[in-house]
Design a protein that fits this description.
The chain has about 425 residues and is of the alpha/beta class. The protein has one domain: Alpha-Beta Barrel (TIM Barrel), CATH 3.20.20.80. About 45% of the residues lie in helices and about 15% in strands. The strands form four sheets. The chain has an eight-stranded parallel beta barrel with strand order 2-3-4-5-6-8-10-11, surrounded by eight helices. The chain has a two-stranded antiparallel ribbon with strand order 1-14. The longest helix is centred in the middle third of the chain and has 25 residues. It is globular. Bound molecules: beta-D-glucopyranose. Beta-D-glucopyranose binds next to loops.
Length: about 425
């Protein structure tokens, strides 16, 4: 047996997002999207985990496990339900939540935007509307001032690449459900601007806070003929946002799997030809990308072990993305702000955590500045278009009674957090 010792201090935590756990997020674009006739959503979020009311119990449980950090998000649609009017009662609510986090001995890490937008923003075009980044920054200023000295860690926009790709190119059945390259590009530009403006807003309101965006990154493994497509995808989904993180205090890395890409003919030939011009590439690549995203199983090697999401079970993939960030932004602090697995077998979750952490530990041994590990998710919750069919929680939630069950993986992660060590079977 070997003990892998993690540096101190280290943020050890679990994460949630408001819409996925709070319940009743009626003023948001997602709420409307779930109700729309023909919606791609499997379920309505409804009461979710009712965390809006049960936050104290959940926070106390996370702290009792031995974790030291809770990453959660503030809902813009609640704080600013109508353009320009701030709901003081909601700010008070999030102050109480944050006080409970601190009171339990946890460090709050607050995400300012986790996928959802107020309906009034969505009606104007969401991230495609040129006014959205400034409006987002104004809301960030309000929140950061309201939380004041309570919060030292802010995540600005969660997975901007997924928002643009999943909703504006339409790959994941997210709102607004546009399906064209030009909406995609407009949303990317808005999200990049939003990233920069929100960072400035946080810094201005609370100069001592650490601020950064959190990025969805996969360990792409293209074969030779698929490289042009993956290069394009990375540029649009990851690199453009990582570049906008160049002045962030930390980079949040969120990696769920590795993705081998083996395009079949004629897609390879079409893309090789399309590479000659940006215009051709933006016509040829999106349909191939959408097909690839809609069928993750097709990308996994034959016979691969799959998670409920259909991803290959590949906990170590996070090390590849950490290394990539360290190459692109040398010396920048890195926090794994999400890493997790959807499964009904909690022993698999423990294995996922251990193998992921062992791989992360290697990157630390190699001198990379990894400062924390935040598991997705604290609770089983509303997995966007996939609804309640995915179980990501270290704490289970009964869908009928909403009763919580602390799973062995929660205690396991808590033990690692408390001791700062992971015991592995390796020599
Ligand atoms: C998101 C979470 C989501 C998780 C699992 C991340 O893309 O930030 O909201 O639930 O992955 O799919």
């Amino acid at each position: 047996m070997t003990d892998l010792v993690f540096p101190e201090p280290f943020l050890w935590g679990a994460a949630t997002a408001a819409h996925q756990v709070e319940g009743g997020n009626e003023g948001s674009d997602w709420w409307e999207w779930e109700q729309r006739p023909g919606t791609p959503c499997r379920d309505r979020s409804g009461v979710a985990c009712d965390q809006y009311r049960r936050y104290a119990e959940d926070i106390a449980t996370l702290a009792s496990l031995g974790l030291n950090t809770y990453r959660y998000s503030i809902e813009w649609a609640r704080v600013e339900p109508v353009e320009g009017s701030v709901a003081q009662a909601e700010l008070d609510h999030y102050r109480r939540v944050t006080d409970a986090v601190i009171g339990a001995g946890l460090t709050p890490m607050v995400t300012l935007n986790h996928f959802t937008l107020p309906s009034w923003i969505a009606r104007r075009g969401g991230w495609m509307d040129a006014a959205t980044p400034a409006l987002f920054a104004r809301y960030c200023d309000v929140v950061v001032r309201a939380l004041g000295e309570r919060v030292d860690w802010y995540c600005t926009i969660n997975e901007p690449g997924v928002v643009a790709f999943g909703g504006y190119l339409g790959a994941f059945g997210f709102p607004p459900g546009t399906h064209d390259a030009s909406s995609w590009e407009k949303a990317i530009a808005g999200l990049v601007d939003g990233q920069r403006r929100s960072r400035a807003a946080v810094r201005n309101a609370r100069p001592s806070a650490k601020v950064g965006a959190t990025h969805s990154m996969q360990a792409w493994e293209p074969d030779e003929g698929s490289r042009p497509l993956v290069a394009y995808l990375r540029r649009m989904n990851e690199d453009v946002f990582l570049e906008a993180s160049e002045a962030d205090d930390f980079v949040g890395v969120q990696t769920y799997t590795r993705v081998p890409v083996h395009l079949a003919e004629p897609a390879r030939t079409i893309l090789r030809l399309a590479l000659r011009s940006r215009r051709l590439m933006r016509l040829a690549a999106p349909p191939v990308l959408i097909r690839q995203a809609k069928d993750p199983v097709a990308g996994a090697p034959k016979g691969a072990r799959l998670t409920q999401m259909g991803y290959e079970f590949a906990p170590e993939a996070v090390a590849a993305t950490i290394r990539r960030v360290a190459e692109l932004l040398p010396g920048r602090d890195i926090i794994v702000t999400e890493h997790g697995v959807a499964t009904d077998d909690d022993a698999e979750r423990i294995e996922f955590i251990d193998r992921g952490l062992a791989a992360i530990h290697e990157t630390i041994r190699d001198g990379l500045p990894v400062r924390g590990y935040i598991h997705w998710s604290a609770l089983d919750n509303f997995e966007w278009a996939r609804g309640y069919s995915m179980r990501f929680g270290i704490i289970g939630v009964d869908r009928t009674t909403l009763a919580r069950t602390v799973r062995p993986s929660a205690r396991h992660l808590g033990e690692i957090a408390r001791t700062g060590r992971l015991t592995t079977a390796g020599a």
